[in-house]
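Chain A, query sequence.
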Amino acid sequence: MSDEQAQKEQQQGMKKTVALKEDGYYSNCTMVEASPFDISLLFGKIRPVSEPGGQTSLVELYEKQIYLSHLQARALHEALGRSLANIARRQQGMGDTATQ
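Chain A, predicted structure.
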């Protein structure tokens, strides 16, 4: 049985429930780490920090971490790819109508 068939059979037996928290997390920087067992995504924010001398610099602060199996990481990769392609098509379509 292929991985795709096994995944479809597994999904047929599950129901999806989505519970969104009101306090979502916006990340403007990410880091990816991989091991033979899983993929780790670290989400953070770039923030200005004032140093004792009065100078300000930007610092990456990683605050959230998610671990995914390789199978789930591949599914996320494919879903993000589809979403980004759809956004690009919509933006391109909006650009076409703006020039008419």
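Strands lie at 29-34, 39-50, 56-68. The first helix runs from residue 3 to 12.
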